[in-house]
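Example record

One chain of 136 residues, shown exactly as stored in the release files.
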Amino acid sequence: FPYSKLSDEKGVKLKVGKAWPEILNQMETMVNHTANETEYKNASKMVVYATHDSLLAPLVHSLGYKITTFMPFASTLLLELSLPDNLDTDDASQELTVKAIFNNEVITLEGCAENCPFADFKNIVEKTYEGVDVEK
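Predicted structure tokens for this chain:
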């Protein structure tokens, strides 16, 4: 099995412990800008990270996707942060959602629908590196 260390929970936490906080930070920046139309228009709409399979595999695994073979060349993990179709800036109950897509296959996170509310996505992801000092 090419990624046998994925069964080592501590190893996975160490691998994703710096990546997930950075990704969540970028997403939270966008979430915070949706309340202000001017800030939203000026905020980054896309952030691209490039990495090797040695980090991509633990990230995908931490979302609950089971990897059984080597990843294909140029594998891709997309995290779509979406606004509701009928966004009403006066309605604070409208929440952004996240859809995780690995190599064109939607990953349904445990306890979430295909489009997972951002707060739920954040809670799920934070558990994947819980107890890891991300500052080291």
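Notes: Residues 19-33 form the longest helix (15 residues).
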